[in-house]
Design brief:
14% of the residues lie in helices and 44% in strands. The radius of gyration is 29 Å and the shape is elongated. A hairpin with a 2-residue loop joins β14 and β15. The strands form 4 sheets. It has a 5-stranded mixed barrel with strand order 1-2-3-5-4. Strands 7-8-9-11-10 form a 5-stranded mixed β-barrel. Strands 14-15-16-18-17 form a 5-stranded mixed barrel. It starts with a helix and ends with a helix. With 448 residues, the chain is mainly beta.
Amino acid sequence: MASLPEQSKRIGGKVLRVFGWLLVMTSLVSADVIESISELRALDAREAKQGLAVDFSAQVMKVQQTRVSGGIYVFDGIAGTFLVVENLPFEERLRLQPGDHVRVEGKTTKGPVVNSVNVSRLTFKAHGDLPEPEQVSVEEFLAPDIEYQWLSFDATVIGMRPTYRVGQVLVIIRCEGAQYHVIVPKNEESIERLKRLRYRDVRIEAIASTITSREGQPLVRFFHCPSVSSLSLRSSSDVPLRTVKDLLNTETQSLYAARVRGQCLFQDNDYLYLRAKTRCLIVDLLEPVACTAGDLLEVKGRVESDLFGPRLYADGVKVLQPGEDILPVEFESIGDLDVSHHGDLVSLPASLEDIFPNGDGIILSCRSSGTRFEAFLPSPDSSSLELTPGDEIQLSGICLFLQSQVPFEKSGSSNSFALLVREAGEIIVRKKLPGGRERGPIGWLLFW
């Protein structure tokens, strides 16, 4: 349920729109020039098609940066509309930014849902900040009267994909179980930010718009954001505390909010590996967390089931208390592992077959019980690691199944399993290759 301030904003926004449109209804017949967006929207189809003169001030909300069919969304504090600006130089349009105050001159035209303006002149007046949007619910943003209105609403980001327009990215969101689309300007910053917002709850500030059929019937509701910052993280509240076992037993692929407690096994860039009692969970992080292995954590976010079980997309991580590092679960061979150990800290014996450099770390090509797999050490300590192909070693690390629920192929080679080694000290040489030539990691990296 919306808070009292949000309800007040909704009621206030509706009252302003209704009052503004009713106020101008009586003056339309005698008006020589359309002087507000409310007047423009109140015209019937016959009047709009007459090409009546338009002269009003508004704020730029978003500029479509396409040479052929570009347009500008504007809002005057009460109502919004779309400006057809094909007659304006492309470079002139690109100079405009969201929030800019402009004077609009042109002729009325009938739009698909709301009347628009064929612009003959667009005069920049001053820079400005975007106005406060009207907070709406899902039921309200489906109403036809909010076309081109400046709105704010809550949703969950599902994913993104490119659009047919250059410079835009389509963001898929979910509200109350239904999916909608949000169009965001595309650049390196927006792509990276949207990747991090996947499966997170966000508050969106956007302009409502509709795709219609040739007959003018509304088909799809979608939204235009001035920038990627129009999507802001909204941390989940009043989320039930669950165990990892609860998550594993949830028979649904739908996103749902959850709060989980467990001990940190390892943090690797954007991922956190969490052990809660006997099961483990992979947590997708928005940003690094100040914690160490063994710390007791509480993680909030949304859960999505993938091939190997639930994954938690965190919007908040809290360190409840520091702890000591956790011992790995020991196995006699790789054949004893299955997908229930995905994300867990395990230890197993193996034969070292080769060493390869990989960025700041190294990849160890290993074999266990006739099955080949790879172990990745992100940042090896060259002073303590002395390995030679042929050595018998004991490896500890995070168990990751990658491609298939079937752990290992009978051919003796597996691309579905890897081991993420936390530090060089978790690679122990059990038996050196007889008569072999020892090389430290620096020597191997130079050799390769």
